[in-house]
Amino acid sequence: PLPGACGDPAASPSPGAMAGAVLVAAVTLALVAVPSGGSCPARCVCASNILSCSQAVLSTVPTPLPRFTAVLDLSHNNLSRLRADWAPGRLAHLHALLLSHNGLAFVSTEAFAHVPHLRHLDLSSNRLRVLEENLFSDLAELEVLLLYNNEISAIDRTAFDNLGRLRKLYLGRNHIARFPLELLRDGSRPPQLGLLDLSANRLRGLPVAELQALPAWLRDRLYLHANPLACDCPLFQLVARGRRRRLSAVLDFQEELRCQLAAPGRAPVAILALASRELLNCSEAREAVLEAYLGDSVTLGCDSRLRAAHSRHWVTPSGDKVPEEAGNGSATVLANGSLQLRALRPEDAGTYACRVAGPAFNETLYVELLVHNFTLHGPHDGLNTAYTTLVGCILSVVLVLIYLYLTPCRCCCRGADKPPAPRDDSLNSSVLSTTPNHAAGEPPRPRAAGHRAAPGGQNGRFKGGGTPPMAAVVAAPREGPRAQRKVSDPDSVSSVFSDTPIV
């Protein structure tokens, strides 16, 4: 009881003390009634933002879960159902949820509404049988989804809608009998899907034409081994093409890529062995690559080695058969079996298949068409960029050589009425000659023995074999302007560069 509770006025506390006591009591009651957000559930181990409840014999998700949990490991427990209220509060920081080896048979379509930022979800090794409509639609940031080793036999076409960031999907070791083509077809598949594992299921047939048209980056990560596929030549050509292109999905699982022959009672055979005469005598598909531009018209040849073909038809990259009758479309089959495409568009790019059926065996030829997203240069366009660059480089080299080795001619013709302008020593020296300039017909003057040059000259420096003494210059008879030309100065800039090439 608080002081003064018995009604003694002398013992009653002051209003400030009363308010402080009430505040302390309220805070204490709140701490007791509401558990702390950082408390770790029983039978779990918490390390920073990681919550591990693996192998804890749990039949329900433990509560309360810390709101800051980023990784939640609930694997190897007894969680048979995952309801919508398994997480009472919103776990905004959770990006990895591990639920493998739990015997899960039911997952609510609203089970992931509280974890919108989940990037890694592991539901492997459970007892899931059906993937319901919009089951993962709340996981817009999901990147990796593990569903292998379940009992999945039915997949709703909208189960993986809204998974714009999904990169890896593992559906191996299930009971899937229908190939989920919606996961690969443009417009319906996750745009960033780069790995699809459908191994060890119950697939008996494959949409080979559409798989051939897949981008290489997705075809490389499509795993189809350990399925009871029916043997035929298109299947062989699909696998042989992957081996020729060294796709890891084929090279790493060649022994498990097997198929079942139509004859009853026969054991599965390797798909790559169907080329032998004892089996189907399939021929390996040949490929060609053709490049074109928007708006062009191209002809795809079907150069088959079969001379007596029973039938011949083309299949577009989208898997549609081109009709043999000429229609109003852009694709037409010619009389010789070639395919003509007019007014190319960006969506016309891809791999076209020409299937030829003969009396002894069948053959399929593939032509990969690359459509560049710019128009071809017209006849009046300028030079090509590479050609222009090459011509520019050659002209630059020629100009540099002209500048280095061709000297402009000396102007020797002057008017008689104009007196010659005085020139400096460095300018009067010859550019190409290595000997000093003298007057025409005048021999060089010998220097008197023991004569010492005057200290004058450039900057007062001594010129050891340069300008003759002043007396000799004065005594020399004047014979016109050419007689007044001085001997070149070996220390001048022109004399130095006259003996060495300019680089």
Automatic annotation (TrEMBL):
Residues 457-467 have a biased composition (Gly residues). PROSITE patterns: IG_LIKE, LRR. InterPro entries: AMIGO, Ig-like_dom, Ig-like_dom_sf, Ig-like_fold, Ig_sub, Ig_sub2, Immunoglobulin_dom, Leu-rich_rpt. Residues 479-489 have a biased composition (Basic and acidic residues). Pfam families: ig, LRR_8. It is a single-pass type I membrane protein. Residues 1-38 form the signal peptide. Keywords: Cell adhesion, Disulfide bond, Glycoprotein, Immunoglobulin domain, Leucine-rich repeat, Membrane, Repeat, Signal, Transmembrane, Transmembrane helix. Coiled coil: none annotated. One of its GO terms (cellular component) is membrane. The chain crosses the membrane at residues 386-406. It is found in: Membrane. Residues 427-437 have a biased composition (Polar residues). Belongs to the immunoglobulin superfamily. AMIGO family. This is AMGO1 protein.
